[in-house]
């Protein structure tokens, strides 16, 4: 430990230490073990174009950005031609886009409904190219940004622009760009409701305009938001939405009989795609059984939709998330050389002004603070940690963050065991994962969940509610053999169920440290990369791609 401490720039409590380098000189110890993502080359090289609202690292709000980035990068390494088409948000840090340059101007059809009539215009659109985190990107935006309010403001979502109008325009602009640049990708891979209109437009408009080769994959990362759209609003794509307003196509069935009836973009995306994936096998089952299907239940029950849905578990980007090479940490570590983890814990405790005890387990939650994530259970865990002599660190933001802000500023201000950080910070997230003994994910539902996997990669033990992808990735210590087990799970949505799993984990940490250290090493060695999942996606692409 002493050798490791050389070069560590110890933080002063109460400062934004995560914004400064944690080391003043390079790591003195070679911790080995960092996995690289060397991929097998696939025999057939496919042209894949993703349409997405997010792309890590610079246009990320949650897991969507990580997933598109990880999948795209891995498929590139497997020998495929992958491009990501995304909005050129005003808030993008342009200095972090390599080789950013203007590509072309295109005229994108756009419309609006006026007095029951669709008024058609075109919007001059500027297309830029660049590379984000190793992935080639095409960025589209109105050429004259001042003339319209699309993708403007200081945030990806919830900026000062109309999201529905912007994403409908984006779908049209992405397809128009493919047509104008004469591309014929094998696969259009769409993500979430924001890009679903591209499936409708492709089959109803662009397949008659010379785009013939693409087949469409839609990945549903979360069915919580499905994109509600009045028929007249669909005119933002430049075509009338009326043709989609049937039960078979995109009519939002819960609005039948209302005036006006609405479209549901996610429904249309499912109907018009050749294949539909969700981000874990269990979430796929939950969605198909109707349990998590919400208003799209009857659509998902239809055999022609049902039969094209499957679950492919997300991976994580093991180069981005690599404790052996992570430069944001005060010390690196691996399963073979775990000492640096203890130093990372001490560093975080010091920086956050917590008691610097190695014997108090640090329970961490890194999350969007929205109902899906089990807000009441996050709170219950905080108080349980207090009772059980553990430390609790929350990094989160979202529309349920008010109560946590209040607790952070009053009840737990300067508390020696509790720190509630109501904000978004990528670098602090790295430091918390590295310091955490336990990563808690008590979601009400969870399509896949990345934080339990990132936590494991950094040697933390997950405590999760057994739902969706959490059920696919976490195997309980008390019901699985050593080597197979990697965490603690619970079923119920009540505090008692959470306490059962959390208490077992805390007792394990306190009473069997050697076995805990082994469990932590097992987790660090677990294969969590995109290797396996990307092979599944490539197999799916091949199963639908034209020759
Ligand atoms: P979701 O996509 O529902 O938000 P996931 O678990 O799939 O949940 O992905 C969450 C991703 O966002 C992870 O990479 C996590 O580290 C990151 N994240 C969530 N909240 C924060 C935050 N407040 N600060 C930094 N990173 C965060």
Automatic annotation (TrEMBL):
The keyword Amino-acid biosynthesis does not apply. It is found in: Plastid, Chloroplast; Plastid, Amyloplast. PANTHER family: GLYCOGEN SYNTHASE 2-RELATED, PTHR46083. It comes from the Eukaryota. This is Starch synthase, chloroplastic/amyloplastic. Pathway: Glycan biosynthesis; starch biosynthesis. It comes from Tetradesmus obliquus. Residues 1-41 are annotated as: Disordered. NCBIfam families: glgA. Its main location: plastid.
């Amino acid at each position: 430990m002493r050798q490791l401490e050389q070069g560590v720039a110890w933080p002063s409590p109460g400062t934004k230490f995560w914004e400064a380098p944690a080391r003043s000189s390079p790591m003195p110890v070679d911790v080995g073990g960092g996995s690289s993502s060397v991929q097998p080359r696939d025999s057939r090289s496919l042209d894949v174009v993703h349409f997405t609202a997010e792309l890590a690292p610079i246009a990320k709000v949650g897991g969507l950005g990580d997933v598109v980035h990880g999948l795209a990068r891995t498929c590139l390494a497997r020998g495929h031609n992958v491009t990501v088409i995304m909005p050129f948000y005003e808030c993008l840090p342009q200095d972090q886009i390599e080789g950013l340059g203007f590509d072309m101007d295109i005229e994108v059809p756009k419309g609006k409904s006026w007095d029951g009539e669709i008024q058609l215009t075109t919007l001059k659109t500027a297309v830029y190219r660049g590379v984000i985190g190793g992935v080639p990107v095409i960025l589209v935006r109105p050429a004259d940004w001042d003339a319209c309010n699309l993708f403007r403001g200081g945030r990806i979502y919830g900026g000062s622009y109309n999201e529905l109008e912007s994403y409908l325009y984006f779908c049209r602009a992405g397809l128009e760009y493919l047509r104008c640049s004469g591309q014929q990708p094998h696969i259009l891979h769409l993500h979430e409701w924001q890009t679903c209109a591209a499936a409708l437009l492709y089959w109803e408009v662009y397949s008659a305009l010379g785009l013939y080769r693409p087949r469409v994959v839609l990945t549903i990362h979360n069915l919580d938001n499905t994109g509600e759209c009045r028929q007249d609003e669909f005119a933002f794509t430049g075509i009338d939405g009326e043709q989609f307003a049937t039960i078979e196509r995109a009519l939002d069935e819960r609005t039948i009989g209302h005036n006006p009836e609405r479209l549901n973009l996610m429904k249309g995306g499912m109907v018009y795609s050749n294949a539909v994936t969700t981000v874990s096998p269990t979430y796929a089952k939950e969605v198909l059984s109707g349990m998590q299907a919400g208003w799209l239940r009857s659509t998902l029950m239809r055999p022609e939709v049902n039969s094209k849905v499957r679950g492919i578990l997300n991976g994580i980007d093991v180069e981005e998330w690599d404790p052996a090479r992570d430069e944001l940490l005060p010390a690196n570590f691996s399963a073979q050389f775990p000492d640096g983890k203890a130093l990372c814990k001490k560093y975080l405790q010091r920086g956050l002004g917590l008691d610097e005890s190695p014997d108090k387990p640090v329970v961490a939650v890194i999350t969007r603070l929205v109902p899906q994530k089990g807000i009441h259970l996050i709170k219950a865990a905080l108080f349980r940690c207090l009772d059980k002599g553990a430390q609790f660190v929350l990094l989160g933001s979202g529309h349920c963050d008010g109560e946590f802000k209040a607790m952070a500023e009053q009840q737990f201000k300067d508390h020696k065991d509790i720190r509630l950080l109501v904000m978004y910070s990528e670098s602090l997230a790295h430091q918390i994962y590295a310091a955490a003994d336990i990563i808690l994910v008590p979601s009400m539902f969870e399509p896949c969940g990345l934080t339990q996997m990132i936590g494991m990669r950094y040697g933390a033990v997950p405590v999760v509610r057994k739902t969706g992808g959490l059920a696919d990735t976490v195997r309980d210590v008390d019901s699985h053999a050593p080597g197979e087990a990697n965490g603690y799970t619970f079923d119920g949505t009540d505090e008692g169920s959470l306490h059962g799993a959390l208490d077992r984990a805390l007792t394990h940490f306190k009473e069997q440290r050697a076995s805990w250290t082994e469990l932590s090493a097992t987790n660090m060695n677990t294969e969590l990369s995109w290797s396996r999942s990307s092979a599944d996606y490539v197999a799916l692409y091949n199963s639908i791609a034209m020759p």
